[in-house]
Amino acid sequence: MPAMRYQRPELQDRLAAEYVLGTLHGRARRRFERLLAETPALAERVRAWQARLEPLDADLPPVAPPASVWEHIATRTGAASARRWRRLGLLATAATLLLAVATGLLYRQLQRPAHLLMVTDAQAQPVWVLQAVGHRRLKVRTLKSMNMPAEKVCVLWFEWPDGHMQSAGVLSEEPGEHVMPLPRSARHDPMQATLAVSIEQGPRPPPRPRGKIVFRGRWIEL
Q1: Are 9 and 52 in a shared domain?
Q2: Average confidence score pLDDT of the chain
Q3: Taking the model in full, what pTM does it have?
């Protein structure tokens, strides 16, 4: 990505939000951290997003791991038996091969550009973080509920320059990560679309938006 693109305030703001959320990974995160050391304005945006998102994190109840996790850790870190030592050479060889394969897969994955988008509400508060997984799936992280009336839903739309629009489905208001299918079309690339969110009469989205469109944004390519 050319250095000049990082001077755009909108891009700086969204990258800072993704950094604080922890959705920047690999080369993109390392590149962003280098920019932080060189760009005071970018560091200020990160601090602003930290202040904005920390109250949301405080509202999440802590989740204790099940007892089986601790038992598994204790077993794995306990004294090895003679039988385990005899198998250590084979395990080390297998682990080396697996590491080589995993490293190759990870390297190829990092070569692919990541496509991210943060959906905000009218107060510029983050509501959903969208991440394209290949060209088939869309990972959606719900940060907070929009508190929609029972008969209303928020629908995600893909809109292309030729006017074609297609719905990806209803955005979940349940906190956590969800997966949605990306629209599939021989003539329309999901990565070239503008994403929009409209408020519709539930539970199923109409063929085209009928309600008010409350958000529009473009993918950020990292």
Answers
A1: yes
A2: 75
A3: 0.56
Following DSSP, what letter does each residue of 73-142 receive, concatenated?
A: HHHHHSPPPHHHHHHHHHHHHHHHHHHHHHHHHHHHHHHSPPEEEEEE-TTS-EEEEEEEETTTEEEEEE
Of 125, 144, 122, 118, whose CA–CA distance to 51 is shortest? 125
132 and 204, same domain (yes or no): yes
Name the domain count of the chain. Answer: 3
The total number of residues written for the chain in this structure: 222
Calculate the CA dihedral of residues 87, 92, 94, 96 and round it to 10 degrees. 180
Among the residue ranges 104-118, 132-146, 161-175, 192-206, the one predicted with the least confidence is 104-118
State the residue range of the domain holding 50: 3-58
Q: Which residues of 183-218 are buried (b: 16+ CB within 10 A; e: fewer)?
A: beeeebebeebebbbbbbeeeebeeebeeeebbebe
The answer to whether residues 222 and 1 touch, using CB atoms and an 8 Å cutoff, is yes
The answer on pLDDT for 216 being more than 80 is yes
In the sheet that holds 152-159, the strands lie side by side as: 165-170, 152-159, 194-201, 213-218
> Which amino acid makes up residue 37?
A
Query: Dihedral of the CA atoms 152, 200, 221, 34 (nearest 10)?
Result: -30
Q: What pLDDT shows up at residue 156?
A: 95
- 145 and 217 part of one domain: yes
